[in-house]
């Protein structure tokens, strides 16, 4: 009998960017430093193109176009295309036109500063303008954002950036790569024998996304992406209101969902993230919606009950992302 090969070593780096935690794991430890430098450069480019909190970002510049068609960089055009596809795939539950609603509830700056702001907010129901009002011509990279519409790519850009970085690093380094941005995880290249082992659990705390104590699943992801969205983290108080960052486009207010956390595996981290956010917005029956889409998912109710859809693995089982 031939002895089993010893597990290949990996190396990891942890830091912060895009207002969240960054974790990079590579299958070849000798390539960690060079991959980390490339990742930092890629995330800096994404921030300059897509940040809602930088006055000098490309996205912020769209606020001043007054409905005129403008040409944007290929990077922002790609990020917008991902956001619009997510909106279409989720029937508008994930909508990039919630920028004004996010600002209205006080999430108008990097989250580390949000909880320090004690200005009162006035909460009122106001439907988001709607993603169909935004037009993108991929061939020319031309975008039209109507007057008064502010875009927020927070529901998709981080996961898309993880996908983009994982692919680029794996192609460049020629080894397996895992990129996690705030818990939204993308993998590319040759995975470890038992997959990339990922702990899936509720998170809490305004900034550090610290796992809470309690039940969790440890799964091996072999391809695609895994994302988690929830209402337990990134919460703040303002004028007596308990607020969080997941906005319902139908009301412009923080979503009221029976789920506190949703995790989904999909062919890409961007697809997984869109599904998790949409599940929180859709609320009751979201597990049936995810099942119809064939997406392995784990949903945690506010009282702690865990519901899974077909394909979600047991403890330390290998998980192949849905196509």
UniProtKB/TrEMBL annotation:
Keywords annotated in UniProt = FAD, Flavoprotein, Magnesium, Metal-binding, Transferase
| Cofactor remark | Magnesium. Can also use manganese.
Q: Which domain of life is it from?
A: Bacteria
Q: Name one Pfam family in it.
A: ApbE
Top EC group: transferase
Question: What are the required cofactors?
Answer: Mg(2+); Mn(2+)
Binding positions (Mg(2+)): 155, 277
EC?
Answer: 2.7.1.180
Give me the reactions it catalyses: L-threonyl-[protein] + FAD = FMN-L-threonyl-[protein] + AMP + H(+)
Asked if the keyword tRNA processing belongs to this entry, the reply reads no
Q: Which family does it belong to?
A: Belongs to the ApbE family.
The protein's matches in PANTHER family, at most eight in alphabetical order, are given as: FAD:PROTEIN FMN TRANSFERASE, THIAMINE BIOSYNTHESIS LIPOPROTEIN APBE
> What is this protein identified as?
FAD:protein FMN transferase
Q: What is the species of this protein?
A: Streptomyces sp. R39
Q: What is the lineage of its organism?
A: Bacteria, Bacillati, Actinomycetota, Actinomycetes, Kitasatosporales
